[in-house]
Design brief:
heterotrimer, A: alpha/beta, six-stranded mixed β-sheet, four-stranded antiparallel β-sheet, 9 helices, 10 strands, globular, B: 335 residues, mainly alpha, 13 helices, 0% strand
Chain lengths: 268, 335, 293
């Protein structure tokens, strides 16, 4: 549903991302990983129109909203229609002065719902992410980090997006909450068939949840494989080292990916 | 490129940008100054005529028209503005309407009064502030420290015209130790200087105390302490140097307040000087004098602040011209 | 796929009402009560006073503080206490008006500069710098004096020289906020700029603006009284603390209370606002987006 061909981001004449091509199928999870500075987050920002990017082609074909086809230079503020973005630090991503419910409701501002419709949509999204309805009136400083991240998730979800970008969604949380939020994410994906693009440096997480893995290094694609293949036989020497290091540190569980997605053609 | 060296080019560029913005500010300052008098109500030609022929009560329209021609008062705003600006930067400030003598001469005659007052007050004020704050941070929270803080708070809220009146009441009217009004002898300088110095002490004690306290708990001072360097050596050699830069900046920013204080003090004590000259010229609508004085005070401010920025750059490599603008975040790549 | 964890609901449901927020609320409540009390006392005192602030009583000229006239009478026999209460309304009220207008003007200029960026920003900031170059009182004396010394011109002059700090603060905080994650989210979610401004930018600038405003308010009281004392502001016979000081100056030796009480009033009022502002800044410290620059 999302195909990106030859994406390039240049800042002050220096290419921080170059020749990035990948694609994601409906309902699957793509994990983007790599060391810090490899351009993971920049890629997300570029896909959301926050960095001036050049594409040979970007095609986004969601089922319900209208498709986007982009070519050449692009920097558009409202991102890709039909997609939402969950950021790394939930406290920074929520306005400290607004009750969570209002922040969540803003996500569907463009649909101009009536007050009751909006209320229903927000409470449904909140129950989807297992937030008590009473929390809607709280401000971000009055809830836990995990609850704040769930609110961010609800804000994405309330718009019924077909694609959600995640930028290190768990790294601000502690282990137990990480696990709970990850489970919630999974359940949402199952229920709504949402496509996830997750930026993470946690290979253990990628091993458990990814259908497909994209490894970046110095702004270039280092590996672009299905998760099963990647964790068995990585494409490059660098990825092997990466996996080895993660296994030694104990971050990589000895599990087979939960759902084995169909193998995606390498050429995309 | 002006030069091939990669280190010099951005430096020159930054300097150029700074000079450009300085030029813009100077232009803006002149424009505002000129607008203040241009849009003033009342017939300027009549004011000039009165200044020239003080004995004549009414003027025939031909004479007024002649004056308008002579001073180009019929020209559009920007023509008059640029004429004035060119003359100003060539050093032709014109003659005062009130006394028909060159503005510059009157200014020179008055500026020494102001300078002696400001310099004395700054000297007393800064010394007192330094002494108070350095003793205060010796034992933070002690009675002396709290007294110093309270004094600084009161000083910041003290209207200095009132303080001046109180001093006059006590030392001139009751004790008869010092002269109350006027200027000339060193005795005349004492009360005004103390009034102005009190305000300087109050504002600077507060700041210096904060800077000293911050420097005192800085990690590098802890390290020095662990190494066994004595407290007095830490203070004199390290904390002082550390606090000097921010303190300097604040004093620079306060030059405007200092000028304000001078105006009030001069008028309260009926001293000569720039402040009372300004008030007198404003009341008598002596436009050349007003233009010169307002422009002068703004130029002093701009000049001193530019100077302080330069000194800062020289003293502290961390505050650099080359520092990228803080808001340039959109292009920052994060990973 | 089964999900064994349903613990999400029980996860840290305790109220995390911060102590900090409580402190702030309590302080604001106390401050509000205090201001109301002072206002109530001032207004009732003024209404209950048997004297009018501007009506002379030539039989009781320059009488020292007594039971009939708690703070004495001035050279025209007017009751000083009544005039102080009346003058306070002028000093404090005018300062409030002036700083409010300055804050609104500065905020608008700062927002415009921050929002449109590039050329507009540079131009507006150079204008701000230019206005900044004039010592407030020098410019105010000149403008008010040239236009003609009266209350309206003084107010105009003080507004004209007082908005720049607000513009600088709002601009720098606004530019900072625009790149915060939550504003980026709002933009991606398709909120129009005006709503982003109203909901996301302004509420987060508010606390810092409030601190700066209390600071400007107390300074403005000093400026108003100072200008009136120098003869460029509120004109006699209107009671205003600075104008009363000017009146009292001539009778310094015979009736020192004429200049002591107005001065005390200015001092205590400015001190109170300053202290409240300091406390506010401490309390907002970690909450505010940026402290005063």
């Amino acid at each position: 549903m999302l195909r990106v061909k030859n994406l390039r981001v240049r800042i002050h004449g220096k290419a921080i991302l170059d020749a990035i091509s990948f694609c994601v199928q409906q309902g699957q999870t793509l994990c983007i990983t790599g060391e810090s500075g490899s351009g993971k987050s920049s890629l997300l920002r570029a896909l959301n129109g926050l960095l001036p990017a050049e594409f040979e082609r970007l095609a986004f074909h969601p089922k319900t909203s209208e498709p986007s086809e982009l070519k050449g230079r692009w920097q558009g503020a409202p991102g890709l229609p039909g997609s939402r973005w969950v950021m790394q630090d939930p406290i920074a991503a929520l306005n400290p002065k607004l009750p969570l419910g209002v922040s969540i409701g803003e996500s569907v501002f463009s649909k101009s719902l009536s007050a009751t419709e909006l209320n229903d949509a927000v409470s449904e999204a909140m129950s989807d992410v297992e937030l008590l309805p009473g929390l809607a009136v709280r401000r971000p400083s009055e809830v836990s980090l995990g609850q704040a991240q769930r609110a961010c998730l609800a804000r994405a979800l309330v718009a019924r997006p077909e694609l959600i970008f995640f930028d290190e969604p768990l790294s601000a949380l502690d282990a137990i909450v990480q696990k709970q939020v990850a489970a919630t994410m999974r359940r949402i994906q199952m229920r709504y068939g949402t496509t996830f693009i997750i930026v993470t440096h946690d290979l253990g997480f990628a091993a458990t949840y990814a259908d497909h893995v994209l490894v970046l290094r110095n702004g270039k694609v280092e590996a672009n494989q299905s998760a099963g293949n990647f964790f068995k036989s990585p494409e490059s020497r660098y990825c092997e080292e990466l996996l080895l290091a993660a296994t030694e540190l104990g971050g990589l569980p000895e599990v087979v990916p939960a759902t084995q997605g169909p193998e995606v053609a390498r050429s995309c | 490129m002006l030069t091939s060296s990669p280190r010099v080019a951005p430096f020159l560029f930054a300097l150029f940008r700074r000079l450009l913005s300085l030029f813009c500010v100077l232009l803006g300052v002149s424009l505002i100054t000129f607008a203040m008098t241009y849009f003033a109500p009342g017939d300027k030609a009549a004011a000039i005529a009165h200044a020239r022929y003080p004995d004549v009560q009414a003027f025939p329209p031909e004479i007024l028209e002649g004056i308008r021609e002579e001073f180009s008062l019929n020209e559009p705003f920007f023509v008059q503005f640029f004429q004035w600006l060119f003359r100003f930067f060539q050093g032709e400030f014109g003659n005062s309407f009130a006394s028909n003598t060159p503005v510059w001469d009157i200014f020179v005659g008055n500026v020494t009064e102001t300078l002696s007052l400001t310099a004395t007050a700054l000297l007393i004020g800064l010394l007192a502030a330094f002494a108070l704050s350095s003793v205060a941070v010796w034992r933070p929270g002690s009675l002396f420290d709290r007294t110093a803080v309270a004094l600084a708070s009161i000083g910041a809220a003290m209207p200095n015209y009132w303080l001046g009146l109180l001093l006059i009441l006590l030392f001139a009217a009751h004790l008869n130790w010092l002269p109350a009004y006027g200027s000339g002898s060193p005795e005349h300088l004492v009360l005004p200087a103390i009034t102005l110095a009190f305000w300087i002490t109050a504002s600077q004690t507060r700041l210096l105390r904060a800077f000293f306290l911050e420097a005192k708990s800085a990690p590098f001072v802890e390290t020095l302490r662990l190494r066994g360097v004595s407290e007095s050596e830490i203070f004199w050699r390290h904390i002082l140097r550390h606090a000097a830069i921010p303190a300097l900046t604040m004093i620079g920013l306060d030059i405007a307040s200092l000028l304000e204080g001078t105006v009030i003090v001069e008028l309260t004590f009926a001293r000569g000087g720039i402040g009372s000259l300004l008030a007198g010229s404003v009341l008598s609508r002596d436009y050349p004098m007003i233009l010169f004085l307002v422009m002068f005070s703004a130029l002093v401010y701009v000049f001193i602040n530019s100077l302080i920025e330069l000194v800062q750059d020289a003293l502290d490599p961390r505050i650099s011209f080359l520092k990228p603008p803080k808001h340039d975040r959109s292009t920052e790549a994060r990973s | 796929m089964t999900f064994q964890t349903q613990a999400g609901f029980s996860e840290e449901t305790d109220l995390k009402k911060t102590k900090h927020g409580k402190d702030l609320n309590r302080f604001l409540f106390r401050l509000g009560t205090m201001v109301l009390c002072v206002l109530a006392v001032a207004v009732t005192g003024f209404l209950l006073s048997p004297y009018a602030p501007n009506s002379p009583d030539f039989l009781n000229r320059l009488s020292p503080p007594s039971q009939a006239h708690w703070l004495g009478t001035d050279q025209l026999g007017r009751d000083v206490a009544t005039r102080l209460l009346y003058g306070g309304i002028w000093s404090i009220g005018l300062a409030f008006l002036i700083t409010f207008a300055g804050a609104v003007m500065g905020t608008m200029i700062g927002l415009v500069a921050g929002h449109f960026g590039r050329v507009t920003d540079v131009a507006l900031m150079r204008v701000t710098d230019s206005f900044f170059a004039f010592p407030e009182l020098v410019a105010a004396v000149t403008i008010a004096g040239v236009l003609g010394p009266n209350t309206a011109n003084m107010v105009f002059a003080l507004i004209l020289v007082g908005w720049m700090k607000f513009a600088r603060l709002v601009r720098s905080l606004g530019i900072d906020l625009v790149h915060r994650d939550f504003v980026v989210q709002a933009r991606l979610n398709g909120l129009p700029s005006t709503l982003i401004l109203w909901r996301h930018i302004l509420p987060n600038i508010g606390p810092s603006l409030l601190v700066l405003w209390t600071n400007a308010w107390s300074r403005s009281i000093l400026s108003i009284s100072g200008l009136s004392f120098l003869g460029f502001g509120v004109q006699p016979p209107n009671a205003e603390w600075g104008a009363m000081l000017l009146d009292g100056k001539a009778y310094m030796q015979t009736a020192p209370y004429l200049m002591i009480f107005p001065g005390l009033a200015i001092l205590s009022c400015v001190l109170a606002i300053n202290l409240a502002g300091d406390r506010l800044r401490d309390l907002l410290g970690s909450n505010a987006v940026g402290t005063e620059k």
